[in-house]
Amino acid sequence: MSVIVNISNEDPGFELLKSTKGLINTESIKDKWVAHSKVVKIEKVLKILFNQVQGLLSGNDSDIQGRFTLIAFLLNSKKNSDLTLSLIRALSSVTESSRPAMQALSLLYDAITEGSLKFAIFKAILSQAKNADLLNMILPHLQKIENFSKDWTDVASEEKQEFYWEISQLPINESLKAKFIKMLISETSDLPQAHFEEAISQLISYSDASEITSILSLPCINKITGHFAELIKILQEVSVSKYLVFKQSNEDYLASKGFNADKCLDTIRVLALCDLAKHHEEFSYAQAAQQLQVTEEEIDDWVVKSVTFNLLDARIDEVEKKIRATKNTSDQDEKYWENIHQLLEGWEKNLSR
Predict the structure, then answer these.
(1) Taking every annotated instance into account, which residue ranges of this chain make up the domain PCI (predicted)?
(2) Residues paired with residue 314 on neighbouring β-strands, in sequence order
(3) Which of 258, 280, 295, 306 has the least C-beta neighbours within 10 A?
């Protein structure tokens, strides 16, 4: 957070009026509000300026920064939340100067101290970025959302839920989508069922095999019912054949929930290969092909994928058409399999409730 200190001898309100000369219609500003180079009724003057926000956004970056630094100083000194909100709404509604509006909002975010106002500002920045096709400009901020969300201490959980859901549905990369869905789910145990089912389906779709275990250990997993309860059972059993039947029978339903059925099939195949390696230090291409429901010619690729995800340590014998799983003796590997068992036991308990 920036602390704005007035180092000028001039009244900040009067300085702001001078910086907007020719850009803002000041006819409605009464003479008694400005006297002897000082703004006496600054709140009334600010309301008039905010109603002509397009003028405040005129000029170069330095001009805009100067004006909104003064505005932030005045807003902080008055501690008028309603007045600040009126400016946020005005900047959010700008359609022709989105970049300057985002610049102004960013400056305000850094200067304003109240948590609910900072949340409203961040939402306004996102709205401008979305409407002006400038999401790439705020991706670094979204990737560090945990740092920003620490400021939103007085914002209701329900408001943050809706905001995280909105972000998760934007055209951003899948890993970032997954991050916001996880935040959404972890924010509350009382997520609306419609959001919850869609969130879980998208989360599984956007995640790779190495992340599935952490997803299915989320406390809210016991809320899953119907089709998704059946899907989790299949993930639990890492049964490719059962999944293929499930996918064929529920394709329309899964599509309606935004579920990437093909990517999930890839995930199950990777986990199925790891499960085979866990029980057999050496196994044939034929065994792996049967387990994964693929041809023997494809096995090499699936081994490489599993190794890439750090889920399997194995060597391929192309001559004998065998795979030798090297048992990892590291604590990390042992912990991985231990966690798998704990998760599966937890699923069984949750699904039996």
Answers:
(1) 259-343
(2) 325
(3) 295
Cβ atoms of residues 343 and 216 within 8 Å: yes
Q: Is residue 238 part of a domain?
A: no
Q: Which residue, 254, 252, 294, 297, is CA-closest to 273?
A: 294
Band of the pLDDT at 11, cuts 50, 70, 90? low
Q: What percent of the chain has pLDDT over 70?
A: 78
**Dist CA 234 CA 250 (whole Å):** 13
Reference 113, options 76, 66, 159; nearest CA is: 76
Q: Residues of the chain with pLDDT > 90: what percent?
A: 27
Q: How many domains does the chain have?
A: 2
- What b-and-e string marks burial along 46-58, b requiring 16 or more CB atoms within 10 Å of the CB? bbbbbeebbebbe
Residue 269's closest CA among 328, 193, 209, 342?
Answer: 209
Three-class SS of residue 48?
helix
What pLDDT was estimated at residue 3? Answer: 39
**How far, in Å, CA of 52 to CA of 29, rounded?**
13
Residue identified by tokens 């839920």 is: 161
Q: Is residue 205 part of a domain?
A: no
Pairwise CA distance, residues 101 & 67, whole Å: 12
Residue 221 domain-assigned?
no
Given a contact cutoff of 8 angstroms between Cβ atoms, the answer to whether 138 and 126 are in contact is yes
Mean pLDDT confidence for 137-159: 90
Domain that includes residue 42, residue range: 1-149
Check if the beta carbon of residue 267 is closer than 8 Å to that of residue 211.
no
Say if 281 falls within a structural domain: yes
pLDDT for position 37: 59
In the predicted model, is pLDDT for residue 352 greater than 60? no
- State how far the Cα of 252 lies from the Cα of 146, in Å rounded to an integer: 35
CA dihedral 158, 164, 165, 168 (to 10 degrees): -170
Q: Which of 114, 149, 184 finishes a domain?
A: 149
- Count, residues in the chain: 353
What is the reported pLDDT for 19?
73
Whose CA is closest to 48, among 20, 70, 72? 20
